Each structure stands twice: as C-alpha cells, then as structure tokens.
Description:
Layout (H helix, E strand, L loop, with lengths): L1 E5 L2 H10 L3 E4 L12 H10 L3 E5 L11 H17 L3 E4 L10 H9 L5 E4 L9 H11 L3 E4 L10 H11 L4 E5 L4 H11 L3 E4 L2 E5 L20 E5 L1 H14 L1
Parallel strand pairs: 1-2, 1-8, 2-3, 3-4, 4-5, 5-6, 6-7, 7-8
Antiparallel strand pairs: 9-10
Helix pairs in contact: 1-8, 3-4, 7-8
Amino acid sequence: MLEVCVDSVESAIAAFEGGADRIELCGDLPVGGVTPSEVLFRMIRKYTDLKIRVLLRARFGDFCYSGYELEMMREEVQKFAELGAEGIVTGVLTPEGNLDTEQMEGLISCAGKADVALHRAFDVCKNPFKTMEDAISLGIKTILTSGQKNSAWEGRALLKELQAKSKDRIEILAGAGVDADIIEKLYKETGITSYHLSGKIKKESKMEFRNPQVSMGLPGFSEYEIWQTSKENVENARMVLDKFF
C-alpha cells in the first residue's frame, strides 16, 4: 500500500500519475495537516480516480479537543462520508495521553461506510501498545505512525514491534520522512508493507515582487515557497514496493 498525503489538486494528480494506491487529503500540510475543504475534495474526485481518506483535524496543535471542536469534527466526518470518502483519518486523546475511546466512538459512528484510520496522534500517546489494542477494539482499520519518533527510520524499533504484535488485525502504516530509499530499508527492518509519504518538493512562487518586511504565517515559513507532491518521487516509491510485492 502506497498512500500519499496531499493538500492540493496538483499534488493529487501527481500522486495519481505516480502510482499511489490512495491519498490522505489534508489542508495546510506545512503545519502537519488540518481538515481540508469540501471543494478541494470534489476537485480531486473530478481529476483523479484515487481512493481518498480525508484528514479530520480541527486545528494545528495537540489532539485534546474542546466540545465545540468535537462537534465540528463529527459534522465534518458525516459530510465527507456522504460525499463518498473511502476513509476518515483522525485521532482524539485524553489529557492523560490515552486514546479517547468515547469521542472516537462518536466520530466512528458518523463515518457510515467509510473506514477510519488513527493518525499520528498515536505518536504522542502515552502507551502505544495499549492504544493499538484500543484502536483494534474500536474497529479502526489503520494506524499511521512514525514509531513515536520524528521519522519512521528513527522509530523503526517500535514499528517492528507494532507490526509483530498487530498480527494483521490492523494496518500499520509507516510515515514521516519516508521516501523510496527509506521504504526498502524499513521493509527489511520491520516487515511493514504499507507506507505513507508526501513526496514533496519545494517550488518557487511565481511572485516577482516580494516584500521582505512582512511575514504572513508562522516564523520559519516562506510565503514564496510552495510545497507540492512530485510525480517522480511517488514513482520511485512505487517501484520499490513493486520490487518486493
């Protein structure tokens, strides 16, 4: 399984043409992704035949949400399920760092026939093995994880344990810092067969006039760089997977 996370029509088309099996559709990937717009979903449906899992994340930051945020997320789950999303990707934690099974049940109940994946909220939970068992009990299909490290390669020891202990009851989807080279190494180390990547490159803005005195976003982010999935990067990852499977 090769999943590509995208936040634009251009990136979705690149993922499609590069051989992705499905996409995780997000908004604002530079901050880790938030819930995308309905219009973006419809546009990607128009221009690709990819399976779409939609990220449901109310905001940048932690995964302990307010009542208002959870109400909004339940409505969004239902909306994207009705639009025909194949899956929903989300995660809610308690203040103590456990999976909030009550709130997750509420989101799952709104998903209808769409499957549900637990995103990298898993990577900041207190006990990954308990959280995996809780996710399995809830009927969650996938855990996206870097092995609780900044990259999947750094987290390979935990990824290997998760893959072994999951016993095919849930898909372990390795993500963060994943590319064609890392997929081959991770497969040999962990036995994991599902991979998540953005395949991104940074493109220069078309803007010719640039005001260096004004910053519109978070410190360290340039308004004159565009992050976009590279068809070539996806193709390279696809070739590695095809070699093994």
